[in-house]
Design brief:
DNA replication; DNA_pol_alpha_bsu; alpha/beta; six-stranded mixed β-sheet; DNA polymerase alpha subunit B; nucleus; five-stranded mixed β-sheet; 15 strands; globular; 17% helix; DNA binding
Length: 294
């Protein structure tokens, strides 16, 4: 994790650190409601969504979100991992097109908005991080399907979200060798501590060198900048699904949509924007209900 230090060189030309300089604390942006909506509902699902049998699940995703009366469905890749490629005659590109087209057809006449975020380990994505948006033909996209990059920072009715499929929490936990003894860190679990590193570094990927399996592009490092702490941070991980509140931010690991080709996992968020106190708060933790549905 990059840090800034102050010190000097001794007579052996060894740099001796005298002080660790902390960056200014990142603060969440103010909640700026752009509509009269009193409550927003969001469904989050993390891939893979295409299994070895070639079956795809866009309609199931949309049906669940519509039944729950969700405003937004956030789909995070990978849609199809390399080791899950079907053995049938259908090509990877064809499966990808079917998935996106299925999403668009299912949602085209709905009020539901869909946000699709890639993963670098998807066979249909560019194998680099930060990862550009999926390359989707225009005729496959409905007007309410939005394709973003990874990481992605966006707002929904004034609530600020940050999402990354890089696996940064897993990478930070694996590399952690020292638990700092500041009082605020002593009782933190490893996930919360990893997220605190991200906030203190103001970065959605503060680890350098990066994980050996991640092709990190230093030319795009400004794309991982996180100068303002989001209200909601979504970080898929290989760890079991979890919900944490770290420095006032609601942090989610939604869990994978498919497990052992049978179970399905979603995360649903319901945010009450009608409370008078939410506009004065730096956190929406007291105004959000999060459920992991399995």
């Amino acid at each position: 994790m990059p840090i800034t230090v102050r010190g000097n060189y001794d007579e052996k030309q060894t740099f001796v650190v005298k002080e660790i300089i902390k960056l200014p604390e990142s603060i969440p942006p103010s909640l700026c409601r752009k509509s009269q909506t009193s409550r927003i509902r969001i469904v989050v699902a993390v891939g893979p969504f295409i299994l070895k049998d070639g079956e795809v699940y866009p309609v199931k995703l949309v049906d669940h979100a519509v039944r729950w009366n969700a405003d937004t469905l956030i789909i995070i890749g990978p849609l199809l991992q390399e080791n899950d490629q079907p053995s049938g005659a259908m090509s990877v590109k064809r499966l990808f097109r079917l998935f996106i087209k299925g999403l668009s057809d299912a949602v085209s006449k709905q009020k539901l908005r869909i946000i699709v975020i890639p993963s670098h380990c998807d066979v249909n994505a560019v194998d680099v991080f930060p990862t550009p948006p999926y390359d989707v033909p225009d005729d496959c996209l409905a007007h309410n399907v939005i394709v973003l990059a990874d990481p992605a920072i966006f707002t929904i009715d004034g609530v600020h979200f940050a999402v990354s499929a890089s696996g940064i929490v897993d990478h930070l936990i694996e590399q952690e060798v020292l638990q700092f003894q500041e009082p605020e860190n002593q009782n933190q679990d490893s996930i919360s501590r990893a997220i605190s590193y991200m906030f203190s570094s103001q970065s959605l990927y503060p680890l350098y060198p990066p994980d050996k399996n991640l092709k990190f592009s230093t030319k795009s490092k400004e794309k991982v900048s996180m100068t303002k702490r989001p209200h909601v941070l979504i970080l898929p991980s290989v760890l079991k699904p979890s919900i944490k509140v770290v420095e006032g931010c609601v942090c989610l690991n939604p869990g994978q949509f498919t497990r052992l080709e049978c179970a399905a996992t979603f995360t649903s968020l319901e945010i009450d924007l009608n409370s008078a106190s939410i506009a004065l708060s730096n956190s929406i933790a007291d105004h959000i209900q999060v459920n992991i549905i399995q």
